[in-house]
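Entry:
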Amino acid sequence: MKQQTISLFCGGAILVILGGCTTVQPALEGRLDPNLGAAIRTNIQTQAVAPTAKQKANTYIPADPSRAALALKNYRDGNVEAPVPVNSSGN
């Protein structure tokens, strides 16, 4: 019983002491940049899926038949650049 009373008293004392550390206003009020988080909001907006069918239909990019024919001709003639291997060490 005595130990429980001491623990309860210590807990109450800690709460009273920590109560003095609180403030009425938020600690960073008026000290934050108004653009804080703008990069995150921009990234979310750029990666958002178009929500309407009209917006989704507006993202279609038509193929260019002349470029496709030129790419096929270059491939058949062997005029394609060989891919360059890349690794994480930069070699």
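Residues 64 and 70 are 10 Å apart (CA to CA).
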